[in-house]
Design a protein that fits this description.
Layout (H helix, E strand, L loop, with lengths): L18 H12 L4 H18 L6 H15 L38 H11 L5 H22 L6 H11 L16 H19 L1
């Protein structure tokens, strides 16, 4: 029987407006050893964040807000040269300004709105290395989502075909073009997460 993975059972998001996938990307950025590569990754994440929400007010203030939100999501542990002054929030869950999230029908509900929004922005990333790095992260997240939804549905071809559909054919990849985690690694990761949640509930 498939285990249903509820958002209420996951680790609480620091800034829910951006969703779990952005937080996971930020966590990945923190693990990058090369400082320049870490900054390039952070820039790409901020671009994706900007594309997911509607801008309000002055463009520069909006840019500062995004970088401050990135720092908060990283729990102020992302070691980069920020292009703006970072103002530490005492409580990111209550003091940040809410960013409206557009409500719309989700084409593939097992992935969720955040993954759908991210995939639609991937093709707009000009730097090929950054685009491929984030495409790999998103694709592996999609495999995890499939495993949580139905472990028998985990399939590399399906994930890449869904990315192709999401990007209107602009990103077309074969399994050998991208480093995807094996089905066994994905299922083991999901199983470990589920076991951890069960222990926390005891």
């Amino acid at each position: 029987m498939t285990t249903v993975d509820y958002n209420t059972q996951r680790t609480q998001l620091l800034l829910p407006e951006y969703g779990r996938c952005i937080q996971q990307m930020v966590e990945h950025a923190k693990t990058i050893d090369d400082r320049d590569e870490r900054l390039r990754c952070a820039n790409t994440i901020v671009q994706l964040m900007a594309g997911m929400v509607k801008q309000h007010g002055d463009a520069e203030e909006f840019r500062k807000k995004l970088w401050n939100h990135l720092a908060a999501i990283a729990n102020y542990e992302l070691d980069i040269d920020y292009p703006v002054e970072i103002e530490r929030l005492e409580d990111t869950r209550t003091q940040h300004e809410s960013i409206p999230y557009p409500q719309k029908r989700i084409a593939r509900r097992h992935y969720g709105a955040i993954v759908e929004a991210l995939t639609q922005k991937l093709a707009d990333i000009e730097d090929e290395q950054e685009r491929m790095a984030l495409t790999t992260q998103v694709a592996n997240q999609m495999k995890r989502d499939l495993a949580r939804w139905n472990k028998d549905a985990v399939n590399n071809d399906k994930v890449l075909d869904d990315i192709f559909q999401y990007t209107d054919g602009r990103i077309g990849l074969h399994p050998e073009d991208i480093h995807l985690l094996s089905d066994a690694e994905i299922l083991s990761s999901v199983q470990q997460q589920n076991m951890g949640k069960k222990k926390k509930r005891k």
